[in-house]
Task: inverse folding
């Protein structure tokens, strides 16, 4: 390849976005094969990433980057080590299979092209998230996954439930996104590092820092919301409103694993403290049991899988919290096994739904005959989920049990939680693989038929992968697990993984007990389910309801605030504006010591003797008199129109003062503004059909008068304070000296406007235009209203 | 307002105001004036036209929507700043050219284009507001 490594890695990270833009076009040109064609992009990324396995297994990592904002030392940098490689392989590999599947699943859908584009964009965001080295890039990709998953969950946007699910996912994961931003900024401020790869060296200093709890909470908020940990788990089941391929992708290897990735990535930086361990183990363990019980409660196959995903995420968080070499090994193996079997099972459910028209486990049965390939795929995936020997799931379970064999009671407690959780999940897995496919064929909405090849490729490959990975346990350990442990824990581990069974190990017997319990759960599924449902009904409250209540509360609060501030009474708006103005000018005069400059001091001596009338020319007295006459006329005018005209007279006097002090541009502008103000105010008067007279109650008069006097006094005092200070001529000297030579203009005011400060002026004229549009909108609305 | 004298005189008055506004705008770089003031004068001229003959007639005389004039102004002001990108200078850096025309040379520059943009924005926005206010009440 002619490309440098930097360029090819950046190109790889951006390729899905380019493909996303082209997706609708590809769909139009190659309609029946769009899924296959677009799947080439993630497939190519997968193959490209496979090439990194060898160098990374040899204890190296790859860094690449492009300058982003060099002035702040920011680079759009990517970083591949064992951890990001594991995640990126899962994302691109499963992504390719799911794109193929999507093309067939949504065949003939009006917006298939758009859907494939969203999928690719989401995949790009997810890849960027796990490959980003720069923490701001990490945050951007993190939020991008939130936004693109919002589009995917709400893809079927004509249904209210889909919109609600999408908004819920957006709100919950976005709260976590804010936590991530906070954590990133704090981490950068504390360490001076923008790069994740650089944080590793600051772990010890960080753990002793008094701000550590804040940083921990910020990052945990991000990870727990994204990875649907209790009590933020409720968005995940509602995200099932998405088309099935979306669920298969988001809830196996991507979206929800973002939080798991973040926790693993931050282990060297934040991990290992009691706070970290206790929080993660407690929340993870609870989430495991909560999700597993939730899965048994459900009968909709997609909901069952969603709840079991919550459980699996809890399990992963728990393992990360333990933080030992064995538990991290288990977490990595479980991540891989779960990604493969969960994606496979979601796709199987999609096939069942597609082939029979139903997803309810109670109404399905005997589909193994009409849908043999789907059945085989389901069985393979379920074997891994149950954790039978020679599956990836079995390897993961052995490792997690091995890590907890010990005499301490906390270990035993966690072990019990794990066995129960795994047993419940095993029961769920058995019911998914057996109930719909075995037994006698039950009537379904559609005549059951096998799915097309594009929809079988994914489930079969993923089901087989669970077995193949376990058969090649040695390579899996060497290529994936050991480099990831090196990335997470910074130790060089030895892989001891083997597909063989060790009958002397207690862990194996624990696995056997788990499977036995799982079979028991499967056998007694119906009674357990009805008991759980009775408890749920008795409680009558769910986090889902809590979310709704919080959202409605927020809307009501916003409404109340709006009604308070945006009451529609122009008079009070103006009072507020002028009161704010008075405050703004008076604070510097009185609060910041400006007044001292004006008060007579000792140097002045007897100042009363120095008082004198100003020496003014006759025309200057005339201008002053004109201003006073205008002012008096405004205050005494009987009709509003006269007051408006008098205001113009007063303004003209001010313009004349500007003129006599040598500011012709200012005077010129002031004149024009005064004229146009009078014209427009008079026009507004006739349009609004106001009373001719401006009658005010005494209270109003007192309030308005006070405001006017206070504001006027304030601005006068402020100007006097400003003028009393020493004049710094640097800027005016610069303009006077350079205006003609470099800007070719003798009128400095104009040269400043159009040249020196041209960018400000550009902003100002944009504001003028915007204000004009707003005023027109208001005026036209009045006209439209009766 | 709709007297015969006013209606007769409005043509010459508006013409003079518009020419004067252009003059003020163009001379602004070296003498009092500029796009902002010129735009205000021109807007006043349009307002006067509307007062004399009604908003509809004034709109007809303008030919284009005044708000479009304002939008065009922002666009050419922004575009005038893009020229400096080809000389490798920051946005809005001025470029000058001298066009010999018989006895004299006419200096041309990007700030001139920018100032004309300002002129058009002020003219367009204020004229749009004034004309909407001058429109007859709907039925």
Result:
């Amino acid at each position: 390849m002619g490309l440098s490594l930097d360029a090819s890695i950046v190109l790889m990270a951006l390729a899905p976005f380019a493909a996303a833009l082209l997706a609708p076009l590809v769909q139009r040109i190659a309609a029946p094969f769009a899924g296959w064609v677009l799947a080439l992009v993630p497939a190519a990324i997968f193959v490209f990433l496979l090439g990194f396995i060898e160098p990374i297994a040899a204890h190296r990592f790859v860094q690449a980057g492009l300058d982003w904002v060099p002035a702040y030392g920011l680079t759009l940098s990517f970083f591949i080590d064992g951890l990001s490689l594991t995640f990126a392989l899962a994302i691109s590999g499963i992504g390719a299979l799911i794109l193929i599947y999507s093309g067939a699943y949504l065949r003939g859908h009006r917006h298939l092209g758009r859907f494939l584009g969203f999928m690719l964009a989401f995949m790009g965001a997810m890849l960027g998230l796990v490959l980003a080295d720069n923490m701001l890039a990490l945050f951007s990709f993190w939020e991008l996954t939130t936004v693109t998953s919002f589009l995917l969950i709400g893809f079927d946007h004509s249904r209210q439930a889909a919109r609600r699910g999408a908004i819920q996912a957006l709100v919950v994961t976005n709260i976590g996104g804010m936590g991530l931003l906070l954590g990133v900024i704090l981490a950068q401020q504390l360490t001076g590092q923008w790069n994740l790869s650089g944080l590793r060296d600051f772990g010890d200093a960080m753990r002793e820092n008094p701000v550590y709890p804040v940083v921990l909470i910020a990052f945990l908020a991000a990870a727990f919301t994204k990875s649907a940990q209790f009590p933020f788990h409720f968005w995940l089941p509602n995200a099932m409103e998405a088309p099935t391929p979306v669920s298969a992708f988001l809830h196996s290897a991507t979206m929800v694993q973002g939080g798991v990735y973040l926790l693993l990535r931050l282990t060297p930086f934040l991990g290992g403290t009691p706070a970290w361990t206790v929080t993660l183990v407690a929340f993870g363990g609870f989430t495991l049991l909560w999700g597993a019980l939730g899965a048994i409660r459900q009968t909709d196959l997609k909901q069952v899988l969603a709840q079991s995903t919550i459980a699996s995420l809890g399990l992963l968080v728990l393992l990360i919290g333990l933080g030992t070499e064995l538990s991290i090994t288990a977490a990595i193996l479980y991540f891989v096994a779960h990604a493969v079997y969960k994606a496979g099972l979601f796709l199987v459910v999609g096939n069942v739904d597609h082939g029979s028209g139903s997803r309810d486990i109670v109404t399905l049965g005997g589909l193994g005959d009409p849908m043999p390939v789907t059945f085989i795929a389901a069985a393979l995936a379920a074997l891994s989920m149950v954790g039978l020997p020679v599956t990836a799931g079995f390897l993961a379970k052995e490792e997690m049990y091995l890590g907890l064999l010990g005499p301490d009671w906390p270990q035993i407690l966690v072990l019990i939680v794990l066995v129960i959780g795994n047993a419940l999940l095993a029961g769920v897995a058995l019911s998914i693989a057996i109930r719909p496919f075995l037994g006698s064929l039950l009537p379904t909405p559609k005549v059951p038929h096998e799915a097309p090849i594009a929809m079988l490729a994914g489930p079969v490959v993923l089901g087989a992968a669970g077995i193949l990975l376990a058969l090649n346990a040695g390579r899996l350990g060497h290529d994936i697990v050991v480099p990831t442990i090196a990335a997470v824990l910074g130790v060089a581990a030895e892989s001891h993984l083997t597909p063989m069974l060790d009958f002397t190990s207690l862990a194996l017997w624990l696995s056997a007990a788990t499977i036995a319990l799982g079979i028991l759960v499967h056998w007694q599924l119906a009674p357990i389910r009805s008991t759980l449902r009775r408890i749920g009904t008795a409680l009558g409250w769910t986090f889902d309801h809590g979310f709704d209540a919080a959202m409605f509360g927020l809307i009501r609060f916003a409404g109340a605030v709006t009604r308070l501030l945006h009451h529609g009474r122009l008079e009070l708006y103006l009072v507020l504006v002028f009161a704010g103005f008075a405050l703004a000018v008076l604070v510097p005069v009185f609060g910041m010591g400006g007044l001292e400059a004006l008060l007579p001091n000792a140097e002045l001596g007897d100042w009363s003797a120095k008082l004198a009338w100003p020496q003014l020319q006759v025309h200057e007295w005339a201008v002053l008199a004109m201003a006073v006459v205008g002012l008096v006329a405004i205050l005494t005018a009987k009709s509003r129109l006269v007051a408006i005209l008098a205001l113009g007279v007063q303004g003209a006097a001010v313009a004349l003062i500007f003129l006599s002090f040598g500011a012709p541009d200012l005077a010129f502008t002031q004149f024009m503004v005064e004229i146009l103000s009078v014209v427009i105010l008079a026009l507004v008067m006739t349009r609004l059909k106001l009373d001719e007279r401006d009658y005010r109650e005494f209270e109003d008069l007192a309030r308005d008068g006070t405001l006017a006097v206070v504001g006027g006094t304030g601005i006068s005092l402020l100007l006097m304070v400003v003028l009393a200070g020493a004049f710094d001529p640097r800027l005016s000297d610069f303009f006077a000296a350079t205006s003609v030579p470099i800007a070719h203009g003798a009128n400095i005011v104009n040269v400043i406007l159009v040249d020196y400060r041209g960018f400000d002026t550009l902003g100002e004229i944009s504001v003028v235009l915007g204000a004009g549009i707003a005023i027109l909108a208001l005026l036209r609305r009045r006209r439209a209203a009766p | 307002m709709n007297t015969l004298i006013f209606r007769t005189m409005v043509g010459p008055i508006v013409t003079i105001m518009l020419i004067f506004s252009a003059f003020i705008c163009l001379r602004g770089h070296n003498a009092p004036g500029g796009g902002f003031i010129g735009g205000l004068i021109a807007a006043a001229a349009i307002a006067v036209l509307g007062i004399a003959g009604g908003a509809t007639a004034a709109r007809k005389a303008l030919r284009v929507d005044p708000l479009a004039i304002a939008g065009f102004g922002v666009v050419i002001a922004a575009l005038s700043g893009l020229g400096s990108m080809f000389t490798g200078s920051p946005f809005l850096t001025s470029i000058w050219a001298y066009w010999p025309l018989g006895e004299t040379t006419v200096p041309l520059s990007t700030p001139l284009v920018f100032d004309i943009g300002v002129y058009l924005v002020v003219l367009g926005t204020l004229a749009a507001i004034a004309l909407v206010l001058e429109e007859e009440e709907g039925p």
Strands of chain B lie at 96-101, 104-109. The mean pLDDT of chain B is 86.
